[in-house]
Amino acid sequence: MQRTSWLGPALLSLALVAAGTAPIAAAAPNSAAPQVNWGSCAPAVQNADDVPGAQCTMLAVPVDYDNPSSGTMAIAVIRIPAAGTRIGSLFVNPGGPGSSAVDTAVGMGAALAGSPINEAFDLVAFDPRGVGYSTPALRCRTDAEFDAWRREPMVDYSPAGVAQIEALTQRYVDQCVARMGKDVLGHVGTREAARDMDEVRKILGDDQINYLGFSYGTRIGTEYLNKFGNRVRRMVLDGAIDPSADPVAQTIDQMAGFQSAFEVYAADCAKSTDCPLGTDPAQSVARYRALIDPLATRPARTSDPRGLSYADAVTGTFNALYTPQYWKFLTSGLLGLARGSDPGDLLMLADQYQGRDRNGHYTNDQDAFNAVRCVDATWSRDPAVWAAADQRIRQVSPFSSYGQFTGYAARDICSFWPVPATSTPAPAKPAAPGQVMVVSTTRDPATPYQAGVNLARQLGASLVTFEGAQHTVVFNGYECIDVATLDFLIDAVAPPPDLRCP
Fold first, then answer.
1. Quick check: is 143 catalytic?
2. Annotation: CATH topology of 39-137+188-244+427-491
3. Exposure string for 263-284, b = 16+ CB within 10 A, e = fewer
4. What is the pTM of this model?
5. Listed ranges 8-17, 19-28, 452-461; the one with the highest mean pLDDT
6. Does the annotation count 471 as an active-site position?
7. Where are the domains of the chain?
8. Which first-to-last residue range defines the signal peptide (predicted)?
């Protein structure tokens, strides 16, 4: 069935939607055939009034599926009923890990009203354990502690400097243990999310589900396929995670991806005589470092009394590189640094990325991000591994690298994690023919293109390539991508082999 693009404004940065914290209505404990009470999503869920008819519930799931007496967690679930002839349920997840899928479903439900997706599918989402509206919320830091963390530049890679950085890291990990407990931290990974998703399928009464996963949401989708492949009708994975990749190698590849996106931004910026990085893209890295390196010892003044720290300038830059729609804010912030005026747009970008609102309150996105990724792989504790990684990152991503290579580097938070990994890197199992479509963007900064190629090969899935420099693309208003996605999800028609979309 031939389709044309029906989408209006782009669905901007689904992975950056702020997670809520208020509880929804309670539900009965889980069983082989879970029984729950569906109710109104408002007022607990932000902007729920934008999707009239949406229903919400809380689903109790065991902390440890292998030990039912371990207690329960509560999973927040939303369902937005189909407006027309129903094909089934379409689960959505924005990734992170740590972003609220419930909030994403609200945003998508409003944006897709009147669309073929809205006509054919119940839009369904659940917040993974500890995320968004699910309880207990994964929260390791107070607001004040998070503000203090962001003031630390963490760029001194001398032996003494590395020791200080790792002491801060260990303090953070200790806070996670004290506030969440090892039982919770040990059961919040993608292994559990896939089983939880099947429990949600049961309460919907569906024999099969459809799934649209963005970014780290592709990891959940892949895990679900591995465990419950016969319960999937169609699955679209956009901005893919390669489940076979070593986490250190994955980090290096991601930094190379951000370097590529930075170069695209710098080339676009150089078209203007007002570009803070100058009009010669070859000098953009040096000019960028000259603007932000001084912040490591002296934060810049902003209208916000916190000022702009080195860490926030870097975080704000990374946030802007997720989508060209944010480039204007990056340019404005860098111009503020270059002119000695207010670089507040960089602080705004950092606040958005870190989940801080205007009242100084944080979502728990970043704490959940750490808790999930740290149990989803085994992370090296060997300092030499991280020193070698730092050396390699400096080669592939010079824009993000402070100072010179010292032979020392601070280890990742996950190197200090207090519970063992519950998953290990392994290739995805082949899916059924025509069951999965993978979308990968050539200059995606966060999930590099090759990861999507690898995942499609492992699954035996259709691969759709988008030529661009942004993170995820489905239902962002690009006709070629959207038509292929609609044909696949609604009519079960696979895209042409090796489809490339401009």
1. no
2. Rossmann fold (3.40.50)
3. bbbbeebbeeeebbbbeebeeb
4. 0.91
5. 452-461
6. yes
7. 39-137+188-244+427-491, 139-180+246-425
8. none
